[in-house]
Write the structure tokens for this entry.
Amino acid sequence: MPVIVNSVELTDADMEQELPAHQDAADPMKSAMTALVLRRVLGDEARRLSLSNDNEDELIDALLALEVKVPEPGHDECLRQYQAYSERFTVGELAECSHILFQVTPGVDLDALRKHAGVVLADVLENPSLFAACAKANSNCPSGEVGGSLGQIARGATVPEFERAVFAAAPERVIPQLIETRFGLHIIQVGRKVAGHLLAFEDVEAKIASAMYKTSHDHALRQYLQVVVGRAKISGIEMQGADSPLVQ
């Protein structure tokens, strides 16, 4: 089925030109077609507002600069962010940890896997000295061969769910519940921890402001795309303005 945007059919040549920029996307074809549709919609919107430029990218940039505006975050907003999420601005924090991974794979019986992991967790909670042996016998991670040891980790070194659990836990203990991540279920043993130190607000204020501005701008851009996509006449593709490859 051809994709038609405001009475203009997108061509195979358009797709061939756009596709190379989307090879890292989960679905390159869908990502490329979404970008083509949005570019056509935004170009039409720019012309509706009497904007003009022979360079299509510059035309769209001019439209977005006109239509998508958010305020710069102020000093007090940045300070509240700094105080609320101080762990993000703490450096030098380290934790020794080991884990037992019960990997979730296609077709796995998740209830049975969770039950088995729960039995192993109960064993190592009752007798932490069994942790290394249980890791070697049960873990789907290569670290199982060394008793589950991951050595010292810093913030940012692992997936967020795992990191939060490790750095929130007291040292020298097994976390008393299974931790779930995209990789599966984990039993985690935390060893020694190094506290690290909090960076001064003055040293990170500009970085906080930039991150907050980008978040606000991306949100505003998604909302704007939903509006212009809703106004356009599009057939041949299901469009969701919030899932835009224009939002980086």
User: Anything to note?
Assistant: The CA atoms of residues 161 and 181 lie 6 Å apart.
